[in-house]
Amino acid sequence: MSSARRLSGVLIWLGVGLVMAAPVLIAGFSPYLAYRSPAYIIGGFAGILCLALLVIQPLLAAGYLPGPGIVTARKWHRRTGAAIVACVLLHVGGLYLTSPPDTLDALLLVSPTPFSVYGVLAMWGILATALLVALRRRLGLRYPVWRLIHNLLALMVVVATVIHALQIEGAMGALSKWALCLVVLVVTSGALLEQRLIQPLRRRRVQATGRIE
């Protein structure tokens, strides 16, 4: 590997890390945290970390990041998915310890706050994705069907999570939150578009060219 390519890889990883870490660090200095309980702070930061991890998930799944091969990248994609599930459980658990009635209202979809609906939708989408991965062999789904369901769930989770995050006035800085949400939407939609549309069209074009020759 040339030094220029190695430097490019390092810069890409630094850029991704900065995009993920900056909103978390900014939230750490928020005045909203001054009088909050430890359970609320842990739950809130688990939610912020979950949003940040959504940046790297599609990049790992598609093998876009320099360094690891596609097999290694997808192993880390699964590990990151497990971390996202853990963050969701911490997020909900922290909010429940802070205010059980409000959390139960949100889970039962009777909360007056509109952002809670999207949070619950994202939570169930993440849990459904985890079950889909864990029960992949038992479900007996063909891989293309399984992958399509996985992609649709991922898109639903990202959209619901972004709407949920943008509607909350909390520890995250407004600018960093909007930037992070925009990056999550761009990398997810871009990866899905490339994997589901551009790559199949490219393969068909190559196959058609081969038949003509």
Question: Gist?
Answer:
The chain has helices at 3-27, 38-62, 70-98, 100-107, 114-134, 136-139, 143-166, 174-212.
Distinctive features:
mainly alpha
Describe this protein's structure.
This protein is 82% helix and 0% strand. With 213 residues, it is an all-alpha fold. Helix 2 packs parallel to helix 8 (174-212), helix 5 (114-134) runs antiparallel to helix 7 and helix 7 runs antiparallel to helix 8 (174-212). The longest helix has 39 residues, at 174-212. The model has no long low-confidence stretch (mean pLDDT 90).
Topology:
Blueprint: H1 3-27, H2 38-62, H3 70-98, H4 100-107, H5 114-134, H6 136-139, H7 143-166, H8 174-212
Helix pairs in contact: 1-2, 1-8, 2-3, 2-8, 3-4, 3-5, 5-7, 7-8
> Averaging pLDDT over every residue, what do you get?
90
Share of helix, binned: over 70%
* Elements, N to C (H/E): HHHHHHHH
Low-confidence residue ranges: none
Oligomerization state of this entry? single chain
What's the gyration radius in Å?
A: 19 Å
Q: Count of DSSP E strands?
A: 0
Find the structural class using helix and strand composition: mainly alpha
Tally of helical runs: 8
Shape call: globular
Largest sheet: none
Strand content: under 5%
What is the terminal-to-terminal distance? Answer: 35 Å
